[in-house]
Amino acid sequence: MRKLLIVGFGDIARRSLPLLRGRYRLFALARTAERAVELRRAGVTPVPGDLDLVNSLERLAGLADDLLHFAPPPSEGDRDSRTAHLLRALESHPRIPQRLVYISTTGVYGDCAGAVVAETRPVNPQSARARRRVDAERRLRAFAARRGTRLVILRVPGIYAWERLPLARLRAGTPALCADQDAFTNHIHGDDLARVVLAALHRGRPGRVYNASDGQWMRMGDYFDLVADHFGLPRPPRIPRGLAAQTLPETLLSFMRESRRIDPERMFRELRVRLRYPSVAETLAGRGA
């Protein structure tokens, strides 16, 4: 049985486990003792290590046949030192993962003024967060070219699920942009993304990038209104961009500044994924799955 290493054991990794069990011997990087206990309970072998401490990653060398890289970059700077540390550890052994799937972000495209965006569009990161992701993608491409690993990059927009809806924001009354100034937003359900990961591992073409989205883009404010209506909460007030820039935190503004409509046609055609949750509206209406 092939050995699969998961780096970045968060929500999507947890959702992927039922799809991976029985297909692989599962290992995952564990930064803390608490995470190691969680992994053992889930039937995953923990491997102690911290992506911020390169010397702690020696146990990863030569361990796995395949790798799922879900770990986010550091929170500061323009470089992804965590991916650099991971690749340095892997290259210290002649046995290299043969298949590697990396979860990136559609933020690497930057602001596209609402245009439809396919994977052929050049990256244009406009935030440090997105620049770190571009740096990770470039490092992984160079590694794959050097070592013959079949790399697949998934560029992912907003991930949602029942426990990942913006209810706290709605209850706080955080404003959204006026309809005529609003940005497009894109989504994929967390369970569907887990299924895309498995499809990428088995069907992804070498060096290929896939937009992992449901393709049902909508205005950001309309998304908030949809969720608010479903849960009986007040819709967020709408304000112009100028006022938003004066009153909202930078973390929110960075998303409001970028508008794009993500085209996932390549994912559907090549990975042959059929979504259980085709859109946010259908999921909220109980028509998903």
CATH topology of the largest domain: Rossmann fold
Spatial strand sequence of the major β-sheet: 3-2-1-4-5-7-12
User: Regions with pLDDT < 50 over 5+ consecutive residues?
Assistant: none
The radius of gyration is 19 Å
Number of domains: 2
Categorize the overall geometry.
Answer: globular
Strand-pairing-aware structural class: alpha/beta
Q: How far apart are the termini?
A: 30 Å
User: Count the strands?
Assistant: 15
What is the succession of H and E elements? EHEHEEHEEHEEHEEEHEEHEHHEHH
- Report the β-strand fraction as a percent range: 15-25%
| Name of the CATH superfamily of the largest domain | NAD(P)-binding Rossmann-like Domain
Count of helices?
A: 11
CATH class category label of the largest domain: Alpha Beta
Please tell me the CATH architecture of the largest domain by its name: 3-Layer(aba) Sandwich
Helix amount: 25-40%
Largest sheet descriptor: 7 strands, parallel
What is the overall pLDDT average? 96
How is this structure best described in words?
This protein is of the alpha/beta class and 289 residues long. It has two domains: 2-159 and 187-211, Rossmann fold, CATH 3.40.50.720; 161-186 and 215-284, UDP-galactose 4-epimerase, domain 1. Helix content is 37%, strand content 20%. Strands 3-2-1-4-5-7-12 form a seven-stranded parallel sheet, with helices on both faces. A two-stranded parallel sheet has the order 6-15. Strands 8-11 form a two-stranded parallel sheet. Helix 3 links the parallel strand 4 (66-69) and strand 5. The radius of gyration is 19 Å and the shape is globular.
